[in-house]
Amino acid sequence: MADKDKSVFEKFSDWATKFTGSSYAFIGATLIVLVWAVSGPVFNYSETWQLVINTGTTIITFLMVFLIQKSQNKDSKAIQIKLNELIAANEKASNRIVDIEDLTEKELDQLHCYYEKLADFAKEDADIHTSHSIDAAQRNQDYKHEFFKRKHDEWLEKQQKK
Predict the structure, then answer these.
(1) Each residue's pLDDT tens digit, 112-121
(2) How far is CA 108 from the centre of its chain?
(3) Spatial distance between the Cα atoms of 68 and 21, rounded to a whole number of angstroms
(4) 17, CA 20 to 30 Å: which among 83, 128, 149, 150?
(5) 132 close to 122: Cβ distance less than 8 angstroms
């Protein structure tokens, strides 16, 4: 994305995120705290002196929460897109997993349990290249269903002939 396409807020938030995560910001914050602490005797450790640091840190913390959340949202979205691309590019990966971040917590828990079972299957396999995916499991399930249905139908025919 070209830098010119970014909004003023986007440019500012990118700059602020980079700056606040830098060693310069940490050194600056440390210096502010040191100056405040050293100035304590000058102001007789008054309530106003304490209020200055409390108010300043509260305001900065309040604003940083939103800045961090915006940065996390952007990073999370970028990571999800990269993962979706890897899933789409891998022929053995199930495309059903693309965009699962939109599922409910309960649905994600169900998928987690499913993948725990797949991990158990993978541990039992001698060949580490054996694929276990939702699609492979569905094919196996369909095969078993058809196989047992056919066997059941054959059994029913034998029972009717008797």
Answers:
(1) 888 888 777 7
(2) 12
(3) 10
(4) 83
(5) yes
Asked if 100 contacts 108 with a C-beta cutoff of 8 angstroms, the reply is yes
* pTM of full prediction above 0.85: no
Count other Cβ atoms within 10 Å, centred on residue 72: 11
Distance CA 13, CA 63 (A): 11
Mean pLDDT of the chain: 86
Query: Using CA atoms, how far apart are residues 55 and 43, in angstroms rounded to an integer?
Result: 17
Is the separation of the CB atoms in 15 and 72 below 8 Å?
no
CB contact at 8 A, 50 and 43? no
CA dihedral 7, 10, 13, 18 (to 10 degrees): -120
Closest residue by Cα to residue 70 from 25, 26, 19, 10:
10
